[in-house]
Write a structure and sequence with these properties.
Rossmann fold; binds magnesium ion; eight-stranded mixed β-sheet; binds guanosine-5'-diphosphate; 8 strands; about 400 residues; alpha/beta
C-alpha cells in the first residue's frame, strides 16, 4: 500500500515538473516572437513531431495544437510558396466594348423606325463622332457609305447598318499591315513601349509578360522609367506576379544603362524577350523624344534585335490620343499600337481613326486592369462587337 502511494506521489511530481519546463520554454519563445526588426534574428527552430503524451495532460495548462504550432514557427523564417498560376480567361471584346456599342445601338434603334432620310444620316454621323471616330474618318466612312447605298439601291436602315459594318471592317483590315508581335528564335528580342504617362505602358508590359511566360518564353522586364522609384517598383510587382525577371537601376539613373544591363542579363540568362518600359513625361516633350531616339540607338547597338516599338495609347483620351500618336510616330519608328482602356470608354471608335489616319496597325488592346485583360486586335471581332444589337 505504502509502495503504491509512493509511486503515485512520484508520478505526480514528474508530471508537475514537466508542466513547469514546458511553460518556461513556451514563454521564452513568445518573447522571441515579439522581436522588433533590427534585432539579431533567432535561428530557425526545427519542427519536431510532438509526442502523443504531451496531449494527454489535462491538468497542466497546455496551449492548443494551433497555439503550439504558431509558437514553434520560427518568426523570421518565411517559406517561399511559388505563386499560384493565375487562371486567365480571354475576355470577350464584345462585353468590354459595351459603352462604345451603346452609342451605336442607340442610334441604330432610332434609325430603324423609318425609311432612310436626312435624319438617318445625321444619326449615323453623330454616333460616329460621339464614339470619337473623328471628323476626317467619319466623313470618309459616310462618303463611302452614300455611294455604296446608291449603287446597291439600299433603302432600309438595316441594309445601311450592314453596309457601314462592311466599310468599318474594310477600313480597319485594308492597309492594316501586320498585327503580329515579332520575335526571332534563339536570341534576345526587344519590345520597347513608349507613350505618355498614365496610358498603361507598365500594365501592358505586365500583361504581355504573363502571356509570354505562360507560353514558355523567358522574359526580362527592363525598368527604363527611372524618373520615379515607384515606376520600377510597379514593374517589379508585375515581374513577381508573372515570373518575369526584373532589371532596374537607381532612381534617376540613365535609362540607357538599364537597357544595357537588361540586354546583358537577357543574354546571360538565355532570355528571349526583353520588354522595355520607358518614361513618358510630356512636359519635357523634346527631351522625351530625344531620349527615346537614344534608347533606340542603344538597343540597336546591343546584341539582340529590336523587333517592336509599341506606342501605348489610352482609348479614353479619344482624339487627343491621336495627336500624341502623331508626335511619337514622328520621333521613333513605331511598329504598332497598344490601345488601352477600351473597357469603360464610349470612345472606342478611336481605333478606326488611328488605323485610318496613321496607318499604324493596332496590334493589341487593353480591356481592363487584370493580368488577362489584353487581347490581340482583330478587326472582324471589333466590328462584330461594335455592331452587336444587345
Ligand atoms: N480599365 C483599364 N485600366 C487600365 C488598362 N491599362 C492600364 N490601366 C490602368 O491605367 C493606370 C495607369 O497605368 P500604367 O501602366 O501605370 O501607365 P504608364 O504610366 O503608361 O506606365 C493604372 O491604374 C492601370 O491599372 C486597361 O486596359 N483598362
Ligand atoms: Mg509606367
Amino acid at each position: 500500500m505504502v509502495a503504491v502511494i509512493v509511486v503515485v506521489v512520484v508520478v505526480a511530481l514528474v508530471l508537475l515538473s514537466a508542466g513547469v519546463v514546458a511553460a518556461v520554454r513556451i514563454s521564452g519563445r513568445s518573447k522571441r516572437h515579439g522581436s522588433v526588426a533590427g534585432e539579431p534574428s533567432a535561428p530557425p527552430i526545427p519542427r519536431q513531431p510532438r509526442p502523443p503524451a504531451e496531449r494527454s495532460q489535462p491538468d497542466v495548462e497546455t496551449p492548443s495544437v494551433e497555439e503550439l504550432e504558431e509558437l514553434l514557427r520560427a518568426p523570421d523564417v518565411e517559406v517561399a510558396t511559388p505563386p499560384e498560376p493565375e487562371v486567365v480567361e480571354r475576355p470577350r471584346l464584345r462585353d468590354r466594348l459595351a459603352r462604345t456599342r451603346g452609342t451605336f445601338s442607340g442610334a441604330f434603334g432610332r434609325m430603324r423606325g423609318h425609311k432612310i432620310d436626312d435624319e438617318t444620316w445625321d444619326e449615323l454621323e453623330e454616333s460616329l463622332l460621339l464614339a470619337d471616330v473623328g471628323m476626317v474618318t467619319t466623313t470618309r466612312l459616310l462618303d463611302a457609305l452614300r455611294s455604296r447605298a446608291k449603287e446597291e439601291s439600299v433603302t432600309e436602315p438595316d441594309g445601311l447598318i450592314a453596309l457601314l459594318r462592311d466599310e468599318v471592317v474594310a477600313l480597319l483590315a485594308g492597309d492594316a499591315g501586320d498585327r503580329a508581335l515579332h520575335m526571332l528564335p534563339d536570341e534576345p528580342n526587344v519590345w520597347m513601349f513608349v507613350g505618355v504617362n498614365g496610358v498603361g505602358k507598365t500594365t501592358t508590359i505586365g500583361k504581355l509578360a504573363s502571356q509570354r511566360v505562360g507560353d514558355g518564353h523567358r522574359v526580362v522586364l527592363a525598368a527604363g522609367d527611372t524618373f520615379r522609384a515607384a515606376a520600377a517598383d510597379q514593374l517589379q510587382l508585375w515581374a513577381e506576379r508573372t515570373g518575369g525577371e526584373l532589371v532596374r537601376g537607381q532612381e534617376g539613373a540613365d535609362p540607357g544603362s538599364v537597357i544595357f544591363d537588361a540586354m546583358a542579363a537577357a543574354a546571360g540568362r538565355g532570355a528571349d524577350l526583353v520588354l522595355v518600359d520607358t518614361a513618358g513625361r510630356l512636359h519635357t516633350k523634346t527631351n522625351l523624344m530625344e531620349e527615346l531616339k537614344k534608347l533606340r540607338r542603344i538597343v540597336d547597338r546591343t546584341p539582340g534585335a529590336l523587333k517592336e516599338v509599341l506606342l501605348v495609347i489610352d482609348a479614353s483620351t479619344g482624339q487627343n490620343g491621336l495627336v500624341q500618336a502623331k508626335q511619337f510616330a514622328d520621333a521613333v519608328d513605331v511598329t504598332g499600337i497598344a490601345l488601352t482602356k477600351l473597357d469603360g470608354t464610349a470612345k472606342g471608335g478611336i481605333v478606326i481613326a488611328i488605323q485610318a489616319e496613321l496607318g499604324i496597325p493596332v496590334k493589341i488592346v487593353g480591356v481592363g486592369e487584370g493580368v488577362g485583360d489584353l487581347i490581340e486586335f482583330d478587326p472582324h471581332e471589333f466590328a462584330a462587337a461594335l455592331f452587336a444589337d444587345d
